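Sample intake sheet
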Amino acid sequence: MSKEQYKPSALIIAPKRSGTNFAVRIFSPAFTSAVNEPLGLHGDVPNGKRNPLSPWEYSSVKDVSQEYGHSRLKDDPYGALLAKQFLGWLNRGEKLIKETDFLYLEWLLASANLKPLVIHRDPRASIASVLKNDLYNRWGFDSKLQRFINTVMNSPLKNLYGNKMPFQEKFPLLPVHQQLAFYYGVAMQEIDRVIKSYDPFEITYNELIRGSDNVLMAIVDYFQGHWNSAVSQAARSRTLETRSSDAYSTFKGYGDLEPFEDVLTREQLDEIDHVFSALGIRLKSVGKGFPKPFSIRELQEERRFMPVTGSKEQSVQEVRKSAVRVDTDTGRSFYVGKTVVSNYEYARFLQWITDNRIPMAINGKPLFYNDLPDGYIHKRGSQIFVDEKYADYPVNFINWVGAAAYSVWIGGRLPTGNEWETGIIRGKKNVEKLLLKANVGEKFGLARVKDHRFPPDERGIHDVLGNVSIWLTDESGNPYERMLAGLEWNHTPELGLLPRPRPWWLGTSGLGIRTAFDSVNRQIPESVFLAKMQELVQLVTQHHEDHTQVSTQIFQLFDQLFSYNQSHEE
């Protein structure tokens, strides 16, 4: 089937807590690849680390470039590479993208062939959901909203919203519900401003959650209006199957449709209404009669970071001791780590990279790891630190380059799709059994690599299925993609267990590493690995316009490294 039949791609837009995850679960079977928030707000602050795909540079909108996201990116090798890779990958169609941030929408919609679905929810209900589930603390909203305010005050948005609320030094002192009210007010207005000329499909949160199959099929038809009848019918069938599957279980009982008046006090609602009035937004009045005030923990747990210690040799020995031999359906054997890679284990690799003067980022853009303010691994000077509380949690937000580089460094490689399916999970027939004891479907959140709630299988392998997905070596046929497999802690089976494509440069929550080994006695010499990492840095720094060629060269470089660990023994 030709690629031209799979147009257009789809974009799901809404502020946070507005049903976007549910929409992705319902509609993702209609697309070959679904991506969660690739462009987000990540670190868009003055003098801070920006998301390399973000178009914002705190200047006028005339500087926005459809090719690079921002015209200055053409002078920024890594940022320009990622922007061109992203748009090249996206414009091939078949993609479903979910975004809850909105500062880049103008560039994104002007740059790619996207059909937008916009979900509207009463912002008071979204705020109530954040408070009820303690998400302000769990998701680090304090730092995220501060970055959001800094972006507003250092961009053209300042002219629209700069005099609507106390900013900068006063904003963190506001009650949580008022901070959230300003965020939702700006989000609603910016989304409305940008999408007007794109004929979006608009639906309310309640219609989406309670909607009949006719409502859902109308959305599918809107997304896939240019597809031929056979493709459209297949997509409709897959979406109906998803509707009747566990994708819907998150909302059984409509627990999150609880009236916001049952969570917010009258005083809080009045204060939220005042914020929206200042922004020129009029909210519908609410009924009378409120329960006792809803209380939320005000103080955040203090974060403590510890320096990374231990040598590469110590890491290698630890991995060798814990590696398990597994067999594939072809009769060959290989070894695999008992656990997915933890933050601490990956931080040791980053310390080695730092000690050998290989940059973690190029021009402030992540190469191996994105050192975000609310992340668990940080570099201070020449020392790598790890959040003590999360040291034993799976490293995630890792792109394919980071996963591949770590695996070679430790003496192995990434698994193949066949090795994952027939060796690690031991066949599709085993999936149903594995799901009974897997960290999937938002049961517990991201869990430690050896958490007692999820015991290992009889081979001693933890998280055979669930907690995080893992990168594979397999190509997808697309020059920008590699494959991944498994399920993430917040995913459900219909999102795809078996190898599925993902852009190599994109690391997202729940995407981590499990290393494979052909022999636990093989180890690449440091001099060879170091030379290849220097070649990688030079390749990214000096890349030219042919971004497809750059991707090919990056893959070839790592193929050489994988082959070295397969054929050389100590």
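Comment: The mean pLDDT is 81. The first strand starts at residue 9 and ends at 13.
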